Amino acid sequence: MTDLTEVDLGKLKTAVDDWKKIVDDLKTLAERADKGMLARSESARWAGVNSDITRPFVRKTAKEFSDAHAEAKSIYQVIEDGHSELLVLQKKLAAVNQDAAQHGLRVADNFDGSVRVFHPRDRTSNDQHTDAERKVAQGFADRIAEIVSHAREIDDSVTMALGRSHRGDTYNFGHDTYTSLDDAQAQRAEELAKKSLRLYKEGKELSEDELRELATLVKYNADDKGFATDLYRSLGPEGALRFQAQLSLDGTAEGGEQMRLARTIQTGMGTALATAIPGLGDQWTDDLIKLGKTELDLQMSGNRVAPMGYQVLGNLLREGEYPKKFLDKVADDMIAYERGGGSWSRPDGSYSGMKDFGLNATGQGGRGWDPMTGLLEAYGHNPDAATDFFGRNAAGPGKEMTNLHYLLGDLGGPDGNEPKRDGARQWIPDVTAPMAQDKIVYHGKDALGHALEAAVTGLPYDHAGTGTHPEHTPERQAIMQEVVREVASDPSLSDDLMADSFGRMAGEYMPEINATLRQSDAFDDLYGNPRKFSDTLATVEFLDAVGRNPDGYAEATLGAENYSASLMQDVVAHPESHTGVPAENLKHVARGTGTIEGILAGARHDEIITGQQQSDKDYNEALQKKADLFNSVFGSTVGLATERVPIAGEVINGVTEHVVGAAVEGAERNTAAKGAHEAGQTSFNGRQNAMDQAAAGLRAAGDPAGVDPSELRMDVSEEAGGGFAEGRDLQRQAKDHYQRNPPK
User: Does pTM top 0.90 for this prediction?
Assistant: First the structure.
């Protein structure tokens, strides 16, 4: 760290200025040589020895002047870029150090590229710090280490470029030249990537140092348009896909440092592709799409995996923001292929022992065999594209339906079950060896939730905190309402991996949900007159489905409480913006939020009881099957010898059933009582939480003029509790509706 904070970049700036003068001077000399000496030599009438020796000598000398200028210009441009980038990082590091100091932290250099960030010794507090405080300190350490790593990458790249410009040649100019530091970095990345492709043909691979260099280059330059475009244009669509597949398969098979480097390269190459696509042109994109449904020859010695182009591309799409036009081209082609009966290749059982083996080196979101996962992650980063995508009809043959209906689909899977929805997508488990897992996980559902979040909120699903939220346009709300209706009619569509997304979507649409559930129109303008959802019962059923998952319950409850608190603040701060009396408006807000929390808590209550009962049932049934098997085997094996084999003075006949039966009875469990207690506790806590949060929201908002603060707080709390009870009643009614009208 001190190498960056204490280095005098002023000296480097002086060198930059000196090289600029050298470049200008050499340019003048080169022009004079070209227009003077060379021009005269070429126009002169040489004969004999002069013709054979002098003219070539003059030509070579003039070229050396030109080469010297080109080399000097290359050096100047590289060190100028290096100085500019190091200066930015130096200022950034100083700002982080200052920020750490303001948090009461100190930074110590470990002199190995890492730092230690710690709280100064404080005897008054016994140096006890919370997990949150330690997490903040580690966050500063990680930020500083990242800046230092980036600075080292720039230093290494400048050194490499200068060495190649000079080549250690004392007598000749005219070696590698660069228009910028990015140009030098792109050339080196291209060189390493092509070397990797060449080595895999020979059954070899890049060294760990070379992989590390490539990972660093891609990591810090992926969002540079020139670097990314040059790299992908040089590799070409097929080379880029083959390179990515080779590194991912090799890294996930090897594990350890090789997998970590493959992960960094995949992330960087994904961002770089998103950066490069606008500059690569339609032909490059069309060639890439042609490879999508084609098995790639990976040219790896001993390889038995032949992924299709889209399967490799899908893993690159997980990172970066891709243009809508490009995503739509890929999506339509991919969906048309699936709907036309196409399927995606998977490795055979010989890889079942490799838990992480696959095309996705990130370690998250599946092994990368389902390309739809990556495509949906890409839509999750491009909200406008996602909104349009889910509203459009699915491409390809078959029943007409929107992409939303096609992708909600059914879990389906490899067990032979046909989807319940005619023509909808049958999701595949994104794992290498599904039979080796106790529970099949459909990772693509998580990505579908992310894409839906972006589509209905107008923000990337993983956006940083923002003070303003985009408008809920009719297009966005139409998708949200359709999700509400579909999940309400078939709660199984709310896969566990999607529940957190549904919870956040519910939180984003609290104005519409409040307006939909409201019994009276007297408070219409309080919520900004949002467009209500068309079906009140479906809204309750949707919240019931979301609330049954702990993540969905937490996200939706948090969204309801945040919205309530912000609305209370607006009521107090801008009473003129709302009709009616502020105190009554505040009580209504508390009741509405309490109603939503009551629905969610009721769903969680029921799920705890159902889950506990189901777990007891499954456990006890499995135990009884083992007991029956034991009795059967034991009886058939030794039962014929009952008269000859005494056990403690008794014969075996009749004893085994008694002994095993007693063991089973003792082992059976009944957590229903425990579950009922936990469920009751959840409901009790939920009601109290609703009341506490309403009171906290009022405290943050302040008291409107002309009211008794203590009386208003009591009223607001009571309204929240009353709303909670109403919500529980609505949730019970929805449950009765399910029983009368089971989902199809």
Answer: no
